[in-house]
Amino acid sequence: MKKLAHLKPILSFIFIGLCITTLSRLILFLVFEDRVDDSPHYWYIFPIGLRFDLILLCYLSFLPAIILSLVPDRFLSYFKVFLYGYFTLLLCILLIMELSTLDFVQQYDTRPNRLFLDYLIYPKEVIGTLFKSYLPSIIITLVVMSVFIYLLYRRRQKLFVPVTNDYKWRLLVFPVVAFLLFVGARSSLTSKRPINASNAVFSFDQLTNSFGLNSTYTVAFAAYSLKNEDNAAKMYGKMDKEEAYSRVKKYMTAAPEDFTDKDFPLLHIQDADFKRKKPCNIVIFLQESLGAEYVGALGGMPLTPEFDKLTKEGLLFRNLYCTGTRSVRGIEAVVSGFLPSPSESVVKLSNSQTGFFTLADILQDNGYDTSFIYGGMANFDNMAAFFNGNGFQNIIDEEDFDSDGKKYAMKGTWGYSDEDLAVKANDYFKTKGNKPFFSLMFSTSNHEPFEFPDGRIKLHDKEKNTVHNAMKYADFSIGKFFELAKKEAYFKNTIFIVIADHNTRTYGKSLVPVNKFHIPALVIGPGVPKGEKYTKLCSQIDMGPSLLSLAGITAETPMPGRNIFDIKPTDEGRAIMQFHDINAFRVEDRVVIMQPGKEPLQFRLINDTVMRPMRLDPELAKDALAHVITASNLYSDGKYKIKHKKKRV
Questions:
Q1: pLDDT of residue 646
Q2: What is the pLDDT of residue 230?
Q3: 111: left (phi over 0), alpha (psi -120 to 50) or beta
Q4: DSSP labels for 604-615?
């Protein structure tokens, strides 16, 4: 063993790294044991985990191996500090990622991933949330990290200081060391491609699958995968563009003769079903994290008495599903009608910052005042840039609340409270007079750390700042907004929709927890059926076409969503859901699941929480792929841009 003494720093690094990841995996297994042991062969998470831990640690050991094997003895001492710093830094990153995993899993039902990277862009909001909601975890992390760094420093001589060895022997052994590290990093000699995250999939429960990875790997893999964000074909399979467009069109309500331009595959004329003397105003009140399970009118918890009362005044969607798990995904679907894809939301992508189709842009061309009203900072998630470049004339956010001199109820971590948003929006709408307007209002209070003013609601939970109480306060603010709006002249000529962006937490035992995508929507306005329920399966992307029709606007749009007022009774309902890098395409009770690098799977939905495997329908699988391919092509080819024609009278 003395002849391999020069490799001791690498062996120490790999051993300590494996201890960190294995202990973390064991803790996660014990915490989520009831969930994990429902999967057959759940113990696979440990050998699979060991495999992926070695992949990461072997990759990270290449540079030290080169230094320790090829640098002559007389120069090796110059690398002592570098090697100690290198190994210490990487082990600290490994440890802090694992320490953050439990809280992340409890919030997002998976290991840290692309979301972890996204939130690093907004340190102010994230740090505020962490200190208010996760202070005990922060303290534990700081204590553990301090002790760990101290121990590494105390033992640095024995662990990471290189030992001189016969130089010729080191050169002779280096090819063997390099080969072993190569095999460990690639984790295969027979496969044409290196192992990736899809090789950890053995269960129908994505959380269980994620436990077979480690959090440094999942975040690094997410960063690496950004290069494929606009290329669904690399993830799910190839399909000819024309075939993909054709398959998407058959799910639309547009007739073949409605399509207007071959260069813009989905561009079509949609005639309004509701004839108006003058077009209606449109207000979208987008609710942060309001899942159907929290809405009394949808059979959920008794947290929404105001919303429930309002259902008597409008059309309630009982079978509506969101497209994703992030606010920007909900905005993408509701405001632009764009299909979900494995890439980032178009709100944040570079090729969609100007000229990209939105309801605001087309309504602006129809003489509407267009606005985005938000109690927080509009630059969060790039919202301000996207809206500013795509038809929103006025952006009202936290800075406008700060500067208008009025006294508001509360300003929290994520901005002004929802009732302040209601007041601000109502004041703005009153100033429009006879000019039609379109506005997107976006709530903030139902977001961790769940801050809201005192004395507004009867608390559902004893502790104030909980998700249930925040839901109830968000509902209070919905009621307040309509109370204010009903007193104003604009109310009688406005189509309102209250709709969620996504659920508060998306988790479950299946690859895609369909029940967690179920959200509420309620439409109120002139000519809207009162007290009725729309029960056919539908998606957020169907809201845009339906709102234009309700408002009495005939328009040329590229939206692939359906106008629900044109759907025939024989048409099957459909919804599309993106869950991390997994895509689900649902038609009635059949769900096709697509995973990167895997063959599609099909399930029958017994109820919202139970899915049973069934034989794959090749045509349905192709339809599922077509929708993802179409989203990628429309974005990358610039085919979702605005191309207006004069509206029909």
A1: 39
A2: 55
A3: beta
A4: EEEETTEEEEE-
Q: CA–CA distance from 98 to each of 84, 85, 137, 217, 444 (Å)? A: 21, 20, 12, 11, 29
Question: Which residues, at least 6 apart from 314, have a Cβ–Cβ distance to it below 8 Å?
Answer: 496, 522, 523, 524, 525, 528, 529, 530, 531
pTM of structure = 0.79
Cα separation, 29 vs 619, in Å, equals 39
Residue 108 CA to residue 398 CA, distance in Å, equals 27
pLDDT, block means (10 residues), the chain with 649 residues: 81 95 95 88 92 94 93 84 93 95 87 78 76 88 95 90 81 92 82 66 81 90 65 81 96 94 93 89 97 95 97 97 94 96 83 88 94 92 86 91 91 93 97 95 92 94 94 97 97 97 82 93 96 96 96 94 94 94 94 92 88 94 95 89 48
Residues 6+ apart with CB under 8 A from 93: 216
Tokens 């079509």 found at: 268
- Cα–Cα distance measured from residue 191 to residue 204, given in angstroms and rounded to the nearest whole number: 24
What is the secondary structure of 171-197 as a DSSP string?
A: HHHHHHHHHHHHHHHH--SSSSS---G
**Cα–Cα nearest to 551, from 531, 525, 521:** 525
Give the rounded distance of the alpha carbon of 213 from its chain centre. Answer: 20
* pLDDT at site 385: 84
553/439 Cα distance (integer angstroms): 16
226: number of Cβ within 10 Å: 12
> Residue 502 and residue 285: Cα distance in Å, rounded?
13
The whole-number pLDDT of residue 294 equals 95
Q: Long-range contacts made by residues 459-464, C-beta under 8 angstroms, separation at least 24?
A: 460/301, 460/302, 460/303
Distance CA(569)–CA(583), nearest Å, equals 27
Measured CA to CA, the distance from residue 154 to residue 218 in angstroms comes to: 31
356: phi then psi, degrees, rounded to nearest 5: -80, 140
**Measured CA distances, 233 to 203, 327, 575, 593 (Å):** 24, 25, 21, 15
**Residues shown for the chain:** 649
Helix (H, G, I), strand (E, B) or coil at 209: helix
Cα angle value 116/117/119 (rounded, 5°): 70
With b meaning 16 or more CB within 10 Å and e meaning fewer, what string describes 19-34?
A: ebbeebbeebbeebee
For every residue of 390-409, DSSP letters joined together read TT--EEE-HHHHHHS----S
Output the furthest CA–CA distance in the chain (Å, rounded). Answer: 92
